Amino acid sequence: MTDSPDARAAATADSLGAALGGDVDVLVTLGSGLAGVADVLDDTVEVATSDLVGIPDSTVPGHTSMLRYGRIGDLRVLAQVGRIHLYEGHRGEDVTRMVDAAALLGASTFVVTNAAGGLEPSWTPGDVMLLHDHLNLTGTSPLVGVVRDGGPVFVDMATPYDPELRALAHAVAGEHDLSLREGVYAGLLGPSYETPAEVAMLRTLGATAVGMSTVLEVVAARARGMQVLGMSTITNVHGEGVETTHDEVIEVGAAVAADVTALVSGILARLAG
Fold first, then answer.
1. Which of these is catalytic: 13, 103, 115, 223?
2. What is the pTM of this model?
3. Catalytic: 236?
4. Cβ–Cβ < 8 Å for 226, 104
5. Is 137 exposed, middle or buried (0-12, 13-18, 19+ CB in 10 A)?
6. How far apart are CA 128 and CA 136, in angstroms?
């Protein structure tokens, strides 16, 4: 591997493009329990991440290390079935390398999903939240050490999640009689779940959901000029004395996978025209 983040991303893009045999229009990254979303694609090709340059395998239950590439209409979609995380011991640039590689292969849209803990007491497990903003509380950025055009990458984050894509998501949700929340996602390092004091802090900061992914991927996508749509499956709601387990996260994610699949496939169909 070469010794700069962008060179490593380019090497991954070269190996990915050769494996797919084509370019990419949309990257979809799927969170815990949502692998079934990839089943809506036609004319699919599957690629193991272990066959690519620079993509580590995930070690997290509920996340596979597979990519599925296919079409919805004329739209070329790459579905990342599972992801890697900082808490597995990876660098920020490793976590976001698939985003960079997809962008280098032409992807202009990034649809990112995750499983998250709800911070609004009135919400219930199984709710789906569109992200309209986020808090990056991981302590790092995928742009650390990246040099483009002779200097560091300063990316505007005034509108991290595209308003037109959010409006499209609401329209598709209405067609399927699905209710969508909107809120602010707090991305933490993990892998420990939040203490009661941390939950109180996050609520004070304005977060409505919390998880251990997504924020770095969105920063990387925006730095590549991609439009981003983000959504969280609320798998548990934090409350006094309420415990959280990863099994619960996977179970609730699987229970609402049909709704999320309908939503994401409907959005992709609209983008395909």
1. 115
2. 0.93
3. yes
4. no
5. middle
6. 20
Q: How distant, in Å, are the alpha carbons of 6, 32, 96, 135, 223 from that of 143?
A: 10, 25, 10, 16, 8
Class of domain 5-272 as given by CATH: alpha beta
**Is residue 90 annotated as a catalytic residue, yes or no?**
no
**Active site (annotated) includes residue 122:** no
Burial environment of residue 151 by CB neighbours within 10 A (0 to 12, 13 to 18, 19 or more): exposed
User: pLDDT 10s per residue in the chain (273 long)?
Assistant: 458 999 999 999 999 999 999 999 999 998 766 777 788 899 999 999 889 998 877 766 555 678 999 999 999 999 998 788 999 999 999 999 999 999 999 999 999 999 899 999 999 999 999 999 999 999 999 999 999 999 999 999 999 999 999 999 999 999 999 999 999 999 999 999 999 999 999 999 999 999 999 999 999 999 999 999 999 999 889 876 666 676 766 777 677 788 888 999 999 999 998
Active site residue 114: no
- Helix axis angle for 97-104 and 5-20, nearest 10°, is 60
CA distances from 219 to 73, 108, 165, 226, 232 (A): 29, 14, 17, 10, 17
Question: Cα 175 vs. chain centroid, distance in angstroms?
Answer: 24
Count of residues for the chain? 273
Active site residue 1: no
Query: 3-state class of 130 per DSSP?
Result: strand
Task: From the candidates 236, 238, 262, 265, give the one annotated as an active-site residue.
Answer: 236
**Catalytic hit among 13, 35, 79, 85:** 85
